[in-house]
Amino acid sequence: MFAPGSTLWLMRHELRLSWRGLTERRGRGRGRFRTLWLSAILPLILLVTAGLPLSFALRRVQISVSPISVAIAAVIAVALFTLMLSQTLSAAVDALYERADLDLLFSSPLKPRRVLTVRFLAVAVNVFTLVGLITTPVLLPIAVTGHPAWLALEPVLFSVSLAATGAGLMIASGLFRLIGPRRTRTLGQVLAAVTGAAAFLLGQAYNILGRQQAGSIWAVIAKRIADPSFHAPPGLDWPLRAMLGQPLPLLGVIAVGVGVFLLANQLLGARFAADAAAAAGVGTGGGRARAAGRARFSASAFRATFTKEMRLIARDPALISQVLLRVLYIIPLGIVILRQAGTAQALALPGGAGALSLIAGQITGSLAWITISAEDAPDLLSCAPTPTRTLRQAKLLAAILPVAILLVPLLVPLTVMAPLPGVAAALGCAGSMGMTAALNVWWQRPAKRSDFRRARQASWFVTLMELLLGIVIAVATGMIAAGQFGWALIPAVLALVGVLLLSRSDAQVAQALRAAS
Questions:
Q1: Which residues contact 399 (CB under 8 A, 6 or more apart)?
Q2: How many Cα atoms sit within 13 Å of 28 on the Cβ side?
Q3: Rounded-to-integer distance, Cα 33 and Cα 10, Å
Q4: 8 A C-beta contact, residue 117 and residue 14
Q5: Measured between alpha carbons, how far is residue 426 from residues 354, 410, 413, 429, 480 in Å?
Q6: What's the half-sphere exposure (Cβ side, CA atoms, 13 Å) at 150?
Q7: What Å distances lie between residue 323 and 111, 317, 320, CA to CA?
Q8: Boundaries of every domain in the chain
Q9: In 331, 442, 473, 479, which residue has its Cα 20 to 30 A from 85's Cα atom?
Q10: Whether the model pTM is above 0.90
């Protein structure tokens, strides 16, 4: 059944590599067992908490094919397709940029067409796995208690994953030629972050637009759809009908998904092989030759170190996607704060100011880990004729400055409109950013930049202290913004004591680094 070189053998190999990559992101050793237990327990939790209650609640419910239900199903299908597309884009770039094993596979007796087909199909399976892991334990009890046709949702979702995989692979191949593999990889992770945050921003429409305006928009949309004169575009009801198990729409949706996947498989054969060969040589040879021709030296070690760290931050796609995701979460928070600042009853300002300081500290912590702990040439810097304090200050500035630039457009108008909450938010953000930066200096652990995805699991103590002290500082910030200066002293003093207890001298930091190396 799994004869070497067969399709099933290749598929098992691809899925095994995908599982290994997932567990390594969670950390080696215990991280793999945690991922395994989570994959086993999550369906059981969903079965008990969602599947069984919904099966009894929906036992006698029949979903009609109405304009409202058709629109909801279409929106859900588009949202899932977009989310899967972003995941496919990242997965395709990983296959091209990180693994770089297609040259080896193409030089083997295996047929290149079979290798590519299996790899593309493995991407689709991986994209579908998370959605299927969530939906299957919910659908099974519902199907058993009276709606067996609703199980058609699973092949519909897999068809969507096939279509998203085909589209994502074609887009990735095109972007590879337009902007190169490095920027394509960055764009894929940024798109995944934006797509994941889009649902959050949509859910915050009432806060962003205002409750009255957002409510009127949804009311107008619902009224327009419910109007008898409204005619949906042809085929818009097929996703809903397919989810309800109607044979012809179900076959149509499956045919579309399989067709897009096969089209991508047919078009990207030779092109994908060429892209893989190009990705294997990224960042070597000519790039270094060009760089050598225009080498320039900075006026000071501080400036050179700062410039180097900023360039490395800009080149890290995982870091960019994580920071961008948190920045997108700041958008509705900032809009709420500014709207409240212009009203007589600014009830949300204290909580918003505290939350802003907490998010600022978390972003600074990610950047500080990159600049402090993930240094690729620590021996070279230690031998440099420059004081360690100067290099450290340059690294900390590289971690703090981007966050400060993001906060200025929000804090300046807030301070003008509401001076006390604005000053409190600025002080809280400064304190939280300084705290996380200091912790990353005092408790730094040498690591590789490629380990950024599991950095927080490796340095769990620093992560926990950042979170706890960040919450305490956020509470103090909120109390100051509310004018409760006496009560604000308690969390402020607690945060200060915590920072002092966790502080280390330069000699202690150096000793800890020698012990870790």
A1: 309, 364, 367, 368, 370, 371, 372, 437, 440
A2: 1
A3: 25
A4: no
A5: 10, 10, 12, 5, 11
A6: 21
A7: 42, 10, 5
A8: 11-280, 301-516
A9: 331
A10: no
